[in-house]
Amino acid sequence: MVYAINDWAFSNDTEFPHQDWDLFLTDLSTAPLLLSLSMNPKVAKAKRKVFLACLYLFVGDAVGIVKDKNYLEEVRLFVEQASSNRNYYIQQWVSRSFQLIQNPELFDYKKWCDGIDIFSFWDDYVFLCSRYVTVVF
């Protein structure tokens, strides 16, 4: 699976290998790779957004869909490990993830699990460089 994710990340293909591919590749075993690819400047910006959306799906699925306490704890530990990352978008994801994990009643499917469209539901999500924010994208 890791090979297929890397293969697509660094290819010129713009379409997912198959429908709902993001759902199939998003789990605890691939989370570190998704995190890495979401920040890798060698990966096209549009694909980095896909991998970032997968990280949101990863947490949203654990909180709002799966609802398994052991799995959620593993997800929380992963988010905690990612909290040292200085990337602006990862920091937003970490902050929102902790808030959701602590307040599962805030789960909104569209904001966490609706694919790349999730970014249109976050008012403060702007994928443009600003003079106040250093963006790795």
Record field, number of beta strands: 0
Overall pLDDT: 86
Number of H/I helices = 7
> Secondary-structure element order, as H and E?
HHHHHHH
Uncertain residue segments? 128-137
Description:
This protein has helices at 2-9, 21-25, 31-39, 45-66, 69-82, 88-102, 109-113. With 137 residues, the protein is mainly alpha-helical. The chain is 57% helix and 0% strand. The two termini are 24 Å apart. It is built from 7 helices and no strands.
What is the structure about, briefly put?
The chain has 137 residues and is mainly α.
Key traits:
single chain, 137 residues, mainly alpha
Helix-strand layout with pairing:
Elements lengths: L1 H8 L11 H5 L5 H9 L5 H22 L2 H14 L5 H15 L6 H5 L24
Helix pairs in contact: 3-4, 4-5, 4-6, 5-6
